[in-house]
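Example 3.2
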Amino acid sequence: DDDDDSVCFSGDSTVQLASGATKTMADLQVGDSVLSADAAGKLSYSDVAFLPHGANAKAADFVKVTTESGKAVKATPTHLLVSCDGSLAQAKAAACVRTVNGDEAVTSIESFKANGIYSAVTLDNEYLVVDGVVASPFAMAHGLVNAYYNLHRAVYKNFPSLMKMPAVVSANSLLASGAVMAMNAA
């Protein structure tokens, strides 16, 4: 049931702020400093530079991926999580994932339906830490989509308030839809 724009985390998924507090994905704002990871897996805090999905109650299929220590990340089935070997795996097929405490085996994957799809792009890091699990902000073509968001990162560095405007989110949705159609046609 996933379509091109309903692939992300559930609205009640949490991220850790630099203050140590947690915040739900639905409440996250551009400028919040969140725990994230670079391509090598090093954890640090980075500002949210862009939120690809505005506030929404879009219905979607999700999976809850639970690790051996009890960490549980909720994402759409094709969302990409960082595997223990550093590769990316779809949430519905994850066997071992990177967490804030190191590599952990997946002990269960449960399907459910919920409303609200959210993600975030950070200024300095490639990956998010959501519910203690290291994950791509994206559900497909991580490298290509991450490169696309470098434009958003550059705009945020120079004009941070611009990235908070609803019109920018709408324009991004149109551009992203066109890019997805082009990739599907190729």
